Fold this sequence. Notes:
By secondary structure, the chain is α/β, with parallel strands linked by helices.
Amino acid sequence: xxxxxxxxxxxxxxxxxxxxxxxxxxxxxxxxxxxxxxxxxxxxxxxxxxxxxxxxxxxxxxxxxxxxxxxxxxxxxxxxxxxxxxxxxxxxxxxxxxxxxxxxxxxxxxxxxxxxxxxxxxxxxxxxxxxxxxxxxxxxxxxxxxxxxxxxxxxxxxxxxxxxxxxxxxxxxxxxxxxxxxxxxxxxxxxxxxxxxxxxxxxxxxxxxxxxxxxxxxxxxxxxxxxxxxxxxxxxxxxxxxxxxxxxxxxxxxxxxxxxxxxxxxxxxxxxxxxxxxxxxxxxxxxxxxxxxxxxxxxxxxxxxxxxxxxxxxxxxxxxxxxxxxxxxxxxxxxxxxxxxxxxxxxx
Length: 348
């Protein structure tokens, strides 16, 4: 009874297994009936029969192979054509339904991108901010890198299907959503909730649940950002610098413009970072400064060791493997393309 019930359900739902069995059975019966009708030209060679059967089922009808006997023509008209066309239509309809289902899943945020790597994950949606954020991330995306994955709530559909993939959640602080977004192998996570509490919860869950190389969280309150930095140093918690920029612009006209230029990916000569490779021998900051200017035509502005960032470093400061260099350039440098071995001669 269980087997019969399963078979009935498979046929009723037009499962792929049921369609395959029906197609095979119909093809075999068609071959037998044509053979009995004396259609040796159609049934004598397996390739010729398969060609005739598929051409008939798809209503292509080239005419190079066709029944020649009256009985064969009746078999074709009454059995091969109706059954083949019905099966072909069922298969085509099921394929289109499957494609449509996959597209709806993607648009409605139900897909799984857990195997993705090297991409960005954005947690949170703001109508007036997030589109520009995703656009800027996309502008610096290297060829072959997967698109950004947007994880957001209160959205029914992907708001930016041309630039992102989408995961819909009920809350941002959701470990399962992070898994589905491929956060464990992402290049970086960007977190900005509807308020600081949501951002804090999502950032902490992300820092505990995945081993991403970088997490960036934006806060309205400077104190919350400072607290998170103390609690979880590997999260880059940032807050609005509007007050600082106002004061700097008041003292130094044009300072706010310089700041916007330095951090705009849409413009030339912006700030980039680069980690010193493990094989590089330690050298002085002045040597790296002169070497990068000479060989790469970029301007070194500082370095970071852990959480400490030193701008305008002393020339004698030591640059060692693992430290992060900050530089101004019109393109991002590949550490492997830098002639580190020539740095020792720079400035000598």
